[in-house]
């Protein structure tokens, strides 16, 4: 498996693009009221790569260990040098919930929907939250409860959400 | 080691307001009422208070409380973070301050209108940038969703069942049915009610979630020497601990080797290391119960059973009066009141005074814990 690595555009903390949304901006939702990511400086490159359709995770440029969520330095070797490593986008469902109301209105409309935690093939300690859907832009309740299973193999896809591109998860074909 | 907190201080006063879905008073007034009730219970004048401790989420600050109740010169004040994880640490910080001579009369309190006030997760304008960006856009909105994720994995890995979670909810409700101050005093719970309840976040149903409460509580901490002169039998602070494990991520503890090993394990190691007794010697436990799955996890973390055995531990009435470990004997957050766990502290004191509405005969030791699933704290109390 090839794992091309690049240095993130904001490795120095100077993030640009959609990540300039500040945490206190009331517009941190879509027009429908779904919550948008509110990136911090450490997380901004993740969302910038996601906008290009790439799932990348921060890695230490010194010892090579992956880490998530992104942070300023490596907890293993304390190096501040980081890179953003391309993931295969494959993983397995580690756990999931099906939220029911009371919820924010835009989520209540789709409830019960699923939220899954996907452990990445490259490092099962990294479990990304997301939604299992039938197609990248399908609603959050598009996969029925009978198809939700811990251990199921999934593949990342990206959906547009407001000005962002967010990871969604599709069941791998059996 | 030169210094120790062991039995150096005691809780000598407890106070609380009524608990309800909606109370007319402000959080500030409720705080003052609970604190003055605790001081009166101790027989200590407000002017003698020189230390305060509360939670970072507490809206009423020390300045407001001190000037309202008529405190004197205050020489120690501290606030502990991470929501309900801070409850027992408020007592721990006061114990440390009193034992080291920084203050002589400490008051810890929590006042909250969570029953009639806003639900924090509804706020879309102020999101925590980390780690909210990794979870909230996907509809993982509420604490129930975040803990539900761990609960399902726990059930999958260890064979815990909804009946185990029901055992937790039932024990708390049964104790609340004995406690006239509890919000659920006159509301019995049956297995059928539990199994047919509406979902909140599968696998958690309504009865797996704590109450939403308006109310306030407080307690008073002084030196063991001073405690002997107070109105009631002293309840000694035997051991205290906080816990923030390596690579822990708070409620969304999803990014480490074992998300099911939480802060309880870290706090417990330190708590027992400082204590003269162990888990087998605990007569009664007040374990933080914002959600039922926190109980089996905490039972494991604090060493009452082995890894993965927390569900099975609840079987056979183990958590009821007369069982292996009577739990949350005033009803807990699930059925008495949810005030970030402070009611668990006050109930621990009542048990060791011998005046609980669900008294464990001759109870002499009590474990009180703060929220598992967030950076936490715990205290061991002894009569």
TrEMBL record, chain A:
Region (Disordered) residue spans: 1-37
Chain intervals with Low complexity compositional bias: 1-31
Signal peptide: none
Ranges of residues in domain ChsH2 rubredoxin-like zinc ribbon: 47-80
Domain ChsH2 C-terminal OB-fold: 84-158
SUPFAM superfamilies: Nucleic acid-binding proteins
InterPro entries: ChsH2_C (IPR002878), ChsH2_Znr (IPR022002), NA-bd_OB-fold (IPR012340), Thioester_dehydratase-like (IPR052513)
Protein name: OB-fold domain-containing protein
Source organism per UniProt: Streptomyces antimicrobicus
TrEMBL record, chain B:
CDD domains the UniProt entry points to: SCP-x_thiolase
Domain Thiolase N-terminal: 10-186
Pfam assignment, any one: Thiolase_N
PANTHER family: ACETYL-COA C-ACETYLTRANSFERASE, NON-SPECIFIC LIPID-TRANSFER PROTEIN-LIKE 2
Protein name: Lipid-transfer protein
Gene3D superfamilies assigned to the protein according to its UniProt record, in alphabetical order: 3.40.47.10
Taxonomy, superkingdom: Bacteria
Residues in Thiolase C-terminal domain copies: 257-376
